[in-house]
Amino acid sequence: MFQPSVLALFLYFPEDKSEYIPAVISLTIFMIAAFFTMRFIMKVSRREAEKTKALEEQIKNNQSTQRDS
């Protein structure tokens, strides 16, 4: 197990709080990108689900017409 003194070597809290600005900017950019990526994935998934539903209906209709013949 790591000792608390070893883990403390990895912590860095700057006294000049302006050093947090680049981190906040990059975090914001990545969060916005993640949001839009998720929205894109949801839209594509919704389109694919609609296509699948239409295909299922087409297959059901074809099967029912073949049985009736």
From TrEMBL:
- Where are the bilayer-spanning segments? 20-41
- Alphabetic keyword roster: Membrane, Transmembrane, Transmembrane helix
Source organism, top-level taxon: Bacteria
Which protein is depicted?
Uncharacterized protein
Q: What is the lineage of its organism?
A: Bacteria, Bacillati, Bacillota, Bacilli, Bacillales
